[in-house]
Every structure is written in C-alpha cells, then in structure tokens.
Amino acid sequence: MDKMPGWADAVLVPLISIFIAGAISALVILAIGENPAEAFWLMVDGALMKSTGWGYTLYYATNFTFTGLAVAVAFHARMFNIGGEGQAQIGGLGVALVCLMLPWPHWTLALVAASLGAALFGAAWALIPAWLQARRGSHIVITTIMFNFIAAAVLNYVLVNLLRPRGAMEPASASFPEGTHLPTFFDMFASEGNPLFRGAPANVTFFLAVLACLAVWVLIWRTRLGYEIRAFGHSETAALYAGISPVRITVIAMLISGGLSGMMALNATMGEAERLVLNASEGAGFIGIAVALMGRSHPVGVLLAALLFGFLYQGGAELAFWTSIPRELITVIQALVILFTGALDNVVRWPLERLFLGLRRKEG
C-alpha cells in the first residue's frame, strides 16, 4: 500500500530522471560557454526534423533495441549480462559466414538465415558464462565482461587471417553479395521528387527489432518459460520449491539474451556496412544496459528508451559538427541518464513514493 502506482513507476520516474540529467547537462553546456537552448534545438533539428536525421536516429535505435532486450531478458532472471558487446561481435561473424558462404537469390531468404546465424552465434558466446554461473557459481558480470575482450580478439584474428580478401589491408571481410543487401528506408519510402531518408543507414531490420520487442513480451508474460524466468528472478528459493531448475533457467535465459545481442549485428553488418568490420557494434552492447534500466526491462519501455538514446547519438553528432561542444558531452549526458535511472534511482523514487502515500492518506 505504500508504493506508487505502476504508471508512475513506469513513466514518472524515468521522465523526472531524464529531466534532472538534462538540467545538469545544461549547466555543463553553460560552463563551456554555449547556449543550452540552442544546443538542444540543434539536437532536435538534426535528429528529428529531417528524414535523414530520423534515418540515423532509427538506425541507432535498432541497435539499442536488440541489446536492450537482451539485457532485459537477463534482468528478469536476476542476471546482469554485460557481454552484449562481445555477443554482438560474434553474432556479426555468424551473419558474415551466412552471407558469404551461400548464394542468396533474394534478401528475404538471406535475412532469415542471417538472423538464425546471428542468434546462434550470439547465444553460443553466452553459453559458457551461463554454464559457469549455473554450475560453478562464477559471477555472470565478471565472465561476460571477460568474454567481451575475448570476442574482440577472436574477431580480429578471423578477419585478419581468414576472411580478409587477398591483397586487402583493412581487417574486414569481403563485401556481401548483392542478394544479401537489405532495403534501406530510402529504398522503401523515397519517391521521385521526395527523397525521404536519403543517405541514412536505417533499413528493414528496424521492423525486425520491433517484432523482437513483441516476441519478448509474449515470451516473458504469456508463456510458461517466461513465468519460470520471472519466478526465478524474484526468488530462487520459491522457484526451487515450485520445481523450477535454476541451472535450466539460467542457461536458457542467457541463451535468449545472447541471441538477441547477436541479432544486433544484422543492422550494423548486413544492413549498413554490408560486410563484417571490426567494432561494428559501436558500443551498443553497453548502451543496452542503460536502455534496459530506463525501460524497466519491459519491451515497450526498451523501445522508447532505445529511441531516446538514438536521438542522443544522432543529436550529439550534430552538436559536434556545428558547434564547439565536443562529441564527448553526449557521453556525459548518457552517463547522467544512466546514473539517475540506475544508481540514483531511489533519489527520484523515494520522494514520489512518499508523495503518493500522503495523497492516499488524505483520500482515506
């Protein structure tokens, strides 16, 4: 009875946290001699007021949606998957092998196969940390962080020694064949005299990310497995009493989480670069942690938080290009959002809970 309503927890707490982070960011912008209002408008104009800006915002949001969902699924099982970055890089290897090793007559077939390849490779990279957590008690945070570095080394070796075309200097694979090229938003929505999304990398994988949100919602709240994952996350003791195997749930939840992280590579590798390159994940695995925290591990919240961080990424690029505000300031804003939605969540939550408790007492 002393807690706030669900809508306040899902909407008010994140909004107030964003407002506080924005206010502090405005003070930082003032301190470096720039106008916060003009900076904010430049971000909005560059990220939201033009179709090209929207194309970049949605491109980044696609990456963050996949990795945010991955972290969210692990959260529901009371695990903190920090390995999304490495799982996405290994997922990119799965995409590259599918695209390069088989002839594809059309992108739809290639996308289905590449999705399976990305998910399987990402899940496989999450399997060992999951097994170590379930069987040996190794902390999932430590093992997944370590596997990020191993993934980077593995990908570097494969690109340099196995997939790099003969005579090429760059550590990257050959370009994918034309049958694997995904339609961009420009291909899908532009028309003669109306060049929407021209030059933007957003592509059909955005809709795949939205479908992934729906699939995760069905999994977590409409299936027996989802119920077992949530029950285990709330109380391992109660889950054991109900006959739920902690080893099974730990491994399955991490496999799903790793698979979702791996699918992020579809957007960056198959949709944008059309080849496998180093660092294609661009930090999306770590941003996914903030997205899941801000979205309260709910697929709708994850999608909205991913759009926010996509806006910050694209808006930050506009700031760095048109003003003297450094690109690193966006990292500061992201850190502030993470700080207030994660570590300092109770700074906002406690006053709101007391406010709603006082209102209840007055009504009573």
Summarize the structure.
This protein has 364 residues and is mainly alpha-helical.
Describe this structure in words.
This protein is an all-alpha fold and 364 residues long. It contains 15 helices and no strands. The radius of gyration is 21 Å and the shape is globular. The mean pLDDT is 91.
Mean pLDDT: 91
What is the number of helical segments per DSSP (H or I, 4+ residues)? Answer: 15
Give me the Rg, rounded: 21 Å
What is the 3D shape?
Answer: globular
Q: What does the largest sheet look like?
A: none
The count of strands amounts to: 0
Provide the helix percentage. Answer: over 70%
Structural class: mainly alpha
Order of helices and strands: HHHHHHHHHHHHHHH
| Unreliable residue stretches | none
Q: Ends: how far apart?
A: 12 Å
What brief labels describe this structure?
single chain; about 375 residues; mainly alpha; about 75% helix; globular
List the helices and strands and how they pair.
Layout (H helix, E strand, L loop, with lengths): L5 H26 L4 H13 L2 H26 L7 H18 L5 H30 L3 H24 L21 H5 L15 H18 L1 H11 L1 H6 L4 H28 L10 H11 L4 H24 L5 H16 L1 H19 L1
